[in-house]
Please model this.
Amino acid sequence: MYAFNRTGVHFIRFLKSIFFFLSFIGHLSHSIKNIITRHLTISWQNVWKILYYSGVSLVLPLIIICALMTMSLSINSYTILRNFNLQDKALSIAQTILIQDVLPIIIGFVLCVQVSLNIINARIKITKLQRTPQDVILEYILPIIIGVNSTGLLLYTYLIIIIFFSMYLTFHNFFNMSNYIFFMDLERTTTLLAFFYSVAKTLLYCSIVSFTAGYYYYMVATRHVPLRKAVSRILTRGSLWLTISSVSIIFIDL
Model:
């Protein structure tokens, strides 16, 4: 009986969460329609704050992380492939892994952590100023959706330059690869379609993060949700959906 009782409780909670998500999407869509028709205005100041705190302030540490990660992956790829006399494929393999798989998911996870921490200050303002769900959508949720996707594109631009530069230094200094061979190999393996694919994955992950965060911001505005629970849910649910999406894309590409 206990097992059936717990199953029923979890099933009812699941149905309630689905209805709540549908109401969130409906309210969000209605607000977007009113913004387009100029009946409502979005808080652009909060968009700039998200661009700064999630983008500008994170550029330097992410540059260092990506540079070291690129160097490590390039060296390991070359070392492993050299055992099979395939070291000439190391550059293209390292580049494909970094640009199409590693970079988009790193940006997604970093932004997931950042927006989950931002809810701490937002919760105080929402509770103290008694913001309505409509105010929360205009002042927090839509700025998060716009800001996170814009930040993702900016970080992608900065970090892809660092990846190519770090890759060049690694292959040129450690493996004595000439500039001509490096750029010829880069030109052969780098295509416009690959860049579009990588950018699309980055925007997909950013959208997952922003909608997950927006859902729990909306929950904070409409329900009494403890701050720790809200932060934890954004981190865990956002990371879960990012992982599921990444694995699903890998299986689709097989």
About this structure: The chain has a mean pLDDT of 86. Helices lie at 2-36, 44-54, 59-82, 90-128, 133-174, 179-189, 192-222, 227-253. The chain has two domains: 1-41, 42-253.
